[in-house]
Amino acid sequence: MKFKILSHAGLLVEAGGTQLVVDPWILGSCYWRSWWNYPKAAKFATEDVSYIYLTHIHWDHFHGPSLRRFPQSTTILVPQAFSTRLLDDLSDFGFKAIVELPHGKTVRLAPELSVTSYQFDIDSTLVIDDGKTTIVDMNDCKIAGWPLRHMIRRHPKVDFMLRSHSSAQPYPFCFDAEDKEDLRFRNNEDYVSDFVASASLLKPRYAIPFASNHCFLHEETQRYNDTIVNPLHVKEYFDGHKPAGTDCVVMVAGDSWDDQSGFQLQEQDFFTNREQHLREYAEEMAPVLREQYRKEQNVKMSFRDFDKYFSKLMKSLPWFSRFLFKPIVVFELQGRPDVHWVLDFDKKQVYELTGEPPNYSICFRVHPLVLKDCVQKGMLTVFLPSKRMTVKLKKGCVKEYLVLSKVFDLYDYRYLPISGMLTPRSLRNWTRRWREIAHFATLALRAMFKRNQQDAIAEFVPRTAL
């Protein structure tokens, strides 16, 4: 077996002459010119690839322009999710073969190449095996608890663990919170310690910091470059808390490994001389960014489109949700500070308000192009990782934000309305993923017995643990 890091979360694996690519984002940017591969994606022959696996629908993993670079004869592999959202989004690409991988079922792609997809929440981990070498590509899947224990039991000998080490979410970096204590539930050190915790449990020969090597070049998000965890810092922390038998190896796009000669790592200073590289990168991409800014100047969004999308979302919520989740959420469009679009989850109402915003829990300030695109594509789940927003959070409302972000995911992935979860397809999927139900039920029970809300919230913040 041999593998090559292609990009931020892109991986090329070859075994017995068969090539598999995972999450190819190999050109351009994503999230409205916010995210860019750092360093740039590696070159390879797309026509030689037999299979592509897509872990989930976030655009730094499911990157449409990159997928169009592959021949339509390439077989696409996707996790067999509760809904057909992934399949529907792939329907316009013209690929002749799209295969769903059931949770936990090992599928042989070639005599010397097998894969097993482990789904968790809205994401998935892929285990790749040629009979001699095992790669666990966790990407940014936060698999934990009983599902993680099951995966470890089935794959006791792991050679490589590839896992994210930095946050893709706006919390807490894009937040202006009345109470700074509300921003303490997740920070960069948590992601680094989770990386080490994953290695301690999987016990791989090598742990590779992965799926976090990107940068921000858009003028709105450049300030967040300092929030990305440097993989050299990950290695430093790892070496100081080193699990027995595991080495941390920093790999960037273009670096590779094979079972004959081991690692091939290029000499580079992408992380020791990062500021200079980012300045040069921004200068190189300046014409593309200027065109993006020009396009954004002319975009307008109507309240009618906003109301249509969010009224459907409101109706999809179960009847009992109003007793548990009733914040007032405000959207303020850049360039229109006097107009506020309001979601009242208590009264299940969507309305427009001129002047001062109401007594809200959460206020998003966002560019009309971003919000319009999300609503038109039914993809509010990508709004948050873009970081193209600022978020005002009232004191004590962090729980409401965490629930709201999950509602966005559940609605776009068609977990809502709940009736959609009772189809034969969904029930078959739940049967295979029963450990996940048990895991989240256990978290809920633990949260119920916490003495204060802060400790209860902490139970649902992703942590790598059995």
Structure description:
- It is a single chain.
- This protein has 466 residues and is of the alpha/beta class.
- It is built from 14 helices and 24 strands.
- The chain has helices spanning 64-67, 85-90, 145-154, 188-202, 231-240, 274-284, 286-297, 303-316, 321-324, 368-377, 398-412, 424-432, 434-448, 453-458, and strands at 2-5, 11-15, 18-22, 29-30, 35-37, 51-53, 75-79, 97-101, 106-110, 113-120, 123-129, 134-139, 160-163, 175-177, 206-209, 214-216, 247-248, 256-258, 262-264, 328-333, 339-344, 349-354, 362-366, 389-393.
- Strands 8-7-6-3-2-1-18-19 form an 8-stranded mixed sheet.
- A hairpin with a 2-residue loop joins strand 2 and strand 3.
- It is globular and about 65 Å long.
The main sheet orders its strands as: 8-7-6-3-2-1-18-19
Tally the beta strands: 24
* Helicity level: 25-40%
What is the class of the largest domain in the CATH system? Answer: Alpha Beta
Going by helix content, strand content and strand pairing, the class is alpha/beta
Determine the strand fraction and express it as a percent band: 15-25%
Number of helices: 14
- Based on CA atoms alone, the radius of gyration comes out at 22 Å
Find the CATH topology of the largest domain.
Metallo-beta-lactamase, Chain A
| Major sheet | 8 strands, mixed
CATH architect. name of the largest domain: 4-Layer Sandwich
Note poorly predicted spans. Answer: none
